[in-house]
Write a structure and sequence with these properties.
Blueprint (H helix, E strand, L loop, with lengths): L2 E2 L5 E2 L8 H4 L4 H8 L11 E2 L15 H12 L13 H11 L11 E4 L1 H13 L5 E6 L4 H9 L2 E8 L5 E2 L1 H6 L5 E7 L11 H13 L4 E4 L15 H4 L5 E6 L12 E6 L9 H9 L7 H13 L2 H22 L5 E4 L6 E6 L10 H12 L1 E2 L1 E2 L8 E5 L4 H18 L4 H19 L4 H15 L7 H34 L8
Parallel strand pairs: 3-14, 5-6, 5-8, 8-9, 9-10
Antiparallel strand pairs: 1-2, 4-11, 6-7, 10-11, 12-13, 13-16, 15-16
The chain binds pyridoxal-5'-phosphate.
The site of pyridoxal-5'-phosphate (PLP) has 13 residues, from helix 5.
Subunit structure: Homodimer.
Function: Transaminase involved in tyrosine breakdown. Converts tyrosine to p-hydroxyphenylpyruvate.
Keywords: Aminotransferase, Pyridoxal phosphate, Transferase, Tyrosine catabolism
């Protein structure tokens, strides 16, 4: 029935249609999570192991050097205008310098700055494939790849990763998917959601297949260098002799500032196969949104050059401690099989549903874990693989321990294994707990470092240069404490006032 509009005119409008691209843009995480009827157990505080935002709990924050660089950048009269859409020269030089190695020099003209790594990936997909072409993606893999390809009308084909071989690529399977509409292979190393880190040998095997089939690689290297001791990160662009590579990265994860929206594409093209095609194409496409924030670009050089190694070590130490804790606590739990990551900030845990009384799938596990234990993780079906769930490893130690304990209790309730099995598992946790608990958290380490710095660097009445350095260091450390404390308060409020579990994804 027609209704009158406010001005009395009869309303014969139909709803305004969204474009095909908008209709085809689907975020698998939202699609699965939003459709589930989930409300956490009101008796238990919600703990999120699902959010891939390392700043969520406030235990991991950007380096002090980066905060200072942003504060300085915002005061510069030159950092408020439109930068070139592909980034200012200073910032592109800084990225080129950051990634240059003795055997491979990156030039600023081969760097394009983007609004985060997601934007870098979108530009690469859009530049390399037309609707109807296909791109090969990892399974399990970061869900954004599918979202972007579907939105652009690009066919997605999935090559398998092998869980029992540290999630290495099944190379034969990858090769079997290639046809004459295949435009590129996406390699994510270190990876989300698996936490896999590929050896040079494995990467060379992938390069060989791409070389034989004349396929370029889109390397998602946002977790570059985030590898646990004993593993090594290899930049695909450095290993490749003949295969052209676009490497997508950014500061979101390594520098713990995902909201600053600064990413990049580094083009490796030893034989000029991209020179007159992909490279200008990427620059043209970057002009659609006029590039990333001018303030973050102005700060980038300082962020990349001044952040000390000890900052990265602290972050990785905390991620690895969480990984160790979960791995050893769940290792002997029939029904749950954690796969130890080698880097990044995630772990996948296999669920053998036959070992549970009333768990039918990873989605069922995920729903019941929220409703009964107020723990949110992500069912790995959002990453294309069933019967696994993903946990994020950036939580503070106390939340990690509490979450792990609740998962074990949940398991105990849902499990049909005899009590003997359970007591064996509990013994394992108790053996492992003291070692993990004895490791200082980043925050504690920071306090310890500050007090030992102050003890060893007592003020000298004669050495004014030293005193000013000392004051500078103290100021940095005080500002980070103040920042952490105010962040804590905001974060507690946010968590307290989250209306439902859906707010936490
Ligand atoms: C594998 C992978 N690539 C890209 C991104 C997006 O990074 P950015 O926040 O810089 O857009 C993420 C974010 O979680 C990711 O896990």
């Amino acid at each position: 029935m027609k209704k009158s509009m406010a001005n009395g005119i009869e309303n014969d409008w139909s709803p305004i249609q969204a474009s095909r691209s908008a209709r085809n843009t689907i975020n698998p995480i939202r699609r699965i999570v939003d459709r589930m009827k989930i409300s956490p157990n009101p008796a238990k505080e919600m703990i999120s192991l699902s959010i891939g935002d390392p700043t969520h709990y406030g235990n991991m924050l950007p380096p002090v050097e980066a905060l200072e660089a942003i504060l300085q950048a915002v005061q510069l009269p030159t950092s408020h205008g439109y930068p070139p859409s592909f980034g200012i020269l200073d910032a592109r030089k800084a990225v080129a310098q950051f990634w240059s190695r003795s055997n491979c020099q990156v030039k600023p003209e081969n760097v394009i700055l983007t609004s985060g790594c997601s934007h870098a990936l979108e530009l690469c997909f859009d530049c390399m494939a037309d609707p109807g072409d296909n791109i090969l993606l990892p399974r399990p893999g970061f869900s954004l790849y599918v979202t972007l390809c579907q939105s652009l009308g690009i066919e997605t084909r999935f090559y398998d990763l092998i869980p029992d071989e540290n999630w290495q690529v099944n190379i034969d399977h990858l090769e079997s998917l290639i046809d004459d509409r295949t435009r590129a292979v996406l390699i994510n190393n270190p990876s989300n959601p698996c936490g896999a880190v590929y050896t040079a040998e494995h990467l060379r095997k992938i390069l060989l297949v791409c070389e034989q089939n004349h396929l370029p690689i889109i390397a998602d290297e946002i977790y570059a260098d985030m590898v646990f001791p004993g593993n090594e990160f290899h930049f695909l662009g450095m290993l490749s002799e003949n295969v052209p590579i676009v490497s997508c990265g950014g500061i979101a994860k390594r520098f713990i500032c995902p909201g600053w929206r600064l990413g990049w594409i580094v083009v490796h093209d030893r034989h000029n196969l991209f020179k007159d095609t992909i490279q200008p194409g990427l620059i043209d496409l970057s002009s659609r949104i006029l590039g990333p924030s001018s303030v973050t670009q102005a700060a980038l050089s300082h962020i990349l050059s001044e952040t000390p190694e000890s900052y990265f070590d602290d972050i990785l130490h905390q991620i690895q401690s969480n990984a160790d804790y979960f791995y050893h606590s769940l290792l002997n739990t029939p029904g749950l099989q954690p796969i130890m990551p080698q880097g990044a900030m995630y772990m996948l845990i296999r669920i053998n549903t036959k070992d549970f009384k009333d768990i039918e799938s990873d989605k069922d596990f995920f729903t019941k874990l929220i409703c009964e234990e107020s723990i949110s993780c992500l069912p790995a079906s959002v990453f294309g693989i069933d019967n696994f769930f993903r946990i994020v490893l950036t939580t503070p130690t106390d939340k990690t321990e509490e979450a792990c304990q609740r998962i074990l209790e949940f398991y105990q309730i849902k499990n049909i294994v005899t009590n003997t099995g359970l007591s064996k598992r509990t013994t394992v946790i108790h053996q492992f707990l003291p070692e993990v608990l004895s490791r200082p958290s980043i925050r504690e380490q920071h306090k310890q470092e500050t007090s030992s710095y102050e003890q060893t660097h007592a003020r000298s009445p004669t050495n004014t240069k030293f005193n000013s350095m000392h004051e500078n260091e103290k100021r940095k450390r005080t500002s980070v404490h103040t920042f952490m404390n105010s962040y804590d308060k905001d974060q507690q409020n946010l968590i307290k006032h989250s209306k439902s579990a859906a707010d936490l994804f």
